[in-house]
Specification:
The protein has one domain. It has two helices and no strands. The relative contact order is 0.15. It is an all-alpha fold. It is elongated, with a radius of gyration of 16 Å.
């Protein structure tokens, strides 16, 4: 579980950073030049990746919690 917690914290930190970047630089993505739109889309991919990782961590915790309780 310690390893999982370590990974979860790292992904939470990255997700927080990505969301801060989104708020700071991409308020109006439709107004960006094409290269900026690709940067924004890449950032969205990173946000999706980190969000998925955190959802997986939660699934692992739930499954292990159920296993321990049984």
């Amino acid at each position: 579980m310690a390893e999982l917690e370590h990974h979860q914290k790292a992904h939470e930190k990255k997700l927080s950073t990505y969301k801060e970047l989104e708020q700071r630089y991409f308020q109006n993505p439709q107004e960006l030049p094409e290269s900026g739109k690709f940067q924004y889309l890449t950032l969205l991919n990173g946000i999706s990746y980190e969000t998925h990782w955190l959802a997986w961590c939660n699934q692992v915790r739930e499954l292990l919690k159920q296993t321990i309780e049984n």
